[in-house]
Amino acid sequence: MTATARTPDILEEDRLRADLYDFLGVLLAAPPPRALLGQTASLSGDDSTLGAAIQAMARVARVTRPEAAEREFNALFIGLGRGELLPYASYYLTGFLNEKPLALLRSDMAARGITRAENVFEPEDNIASLMEMMAGLITGRFGTPASLADQRLFWNRHIGPWAKHFFSDLEAAKASVLYASVGAVGRIFMEIEREGFRMSAG
Question: Is domain 12-200 in CATH 1.10.3480.10, yes or no?
Answer without folding.
Answer: yes
